[in-house]
Design goal:
The structure is a single chain. The chain is globular and about 35 Å long. It has six helices and no strands. The chain is mainly α. The protein has one domain. 63% of the residues lie in helices and 0% in strands.
Length: 131
């Protein structure tokens, strides 16, 4: 789903519209990347917190849009710093997520953070060990 979008504002805008209109497909892609990559990232809890905030029915639409945008940026493989570059691949993704979370911190509820912690623990337990 996300590989077909280029790292342009138009591509990001198209992706955000697609995420908003087809939540279940976007969530499948999100969970696929979360299981594959995010559990090992230092900002994994922030990614999951943004997800739980974005898909909470009590979250205002403008906050949902910002969180979905930050998550979409994380999911785009070819963004400002392509995810294929070792060591710095996710630096820009972390910055975008941190900015969204800081700006909308008043809308992030303790339940979002707790759900993120529980999910992260489960994902790390399920992750295959590497030699």
């Amino acid at each position: 789903m996300f590989g077909q979008y280029s790292a342009t504002w138009q591509g990001a805008e198209a992706l955000a519209r697609r995420v908003a209109s087809s939540g279940s497909e976007a969530q499948r892609e999100f969970w696929h990347k979360a299981q594959r990559v995010a559990a090992g990232l230092p900002f994994a809890e922030d990614v999951l917190t943004a997800h739980y905030c974005a898909f909470d029915r009590h979250t205002p639409f403008h906050v949902k849009a910002a969180m979905v945008g930050a998550i979409a940026y994380f999911l785009l493989p070819d963004d400002l710093i392509p995810d294929s570059i070792p060591a710095i691949a996710y630096a820009d993704d972390a910055a975008v997520l941190a900015a969204a979370i800081k700006y909308f911190s008043s809308h992030i509820r303790p339940e979002h953070r707790e759900a993120a912690r529980r999910t992260l623990a489960r994902l790390r337990d399920e992750a295959p060990s590497r030699p």
